[in-house]
Here is the input.
Amino acid sequence: MYWKNVTAVFLLAGAIALCLPQLALSQYWSIRLDGGSGGTDIVHAADHAGGYTTLTGTTQHTDGSTRAFTTRISSSGDTLWTRMLSGTGDTHGIAVRCTPDTGALVACAQWTAATWRPTLVKYTADGSVAWERQIDVS
Here is the structure.
């Protein structure tokens, strides 16, 4: 069961990643992400649409626990919003896709009941959670 769920998480992330456009390698600005945990922030995926860049990844706290974050940044590099997603265990943001309604769809992996669960979160343009769904792969 464990490997079946891990495989589902990465297949879901891969399916979203296939839809992502190629990002330019030029860097026009840089930004320091701070999840407020005193730990480390790691960006796993980014997408760009409508003049915005949306990032998702993992914030690792100093106690070793992790939470997924999603951040929207303007074309000038200003952080517009940051949202954290945490479950009963570790959570990782794996893939992100900007949606036509200027929101974002994020694929996450959540550790629950001794297994990884694929989770999709739909954010609106202002960063509100429109919906969140855990995917049952059993």
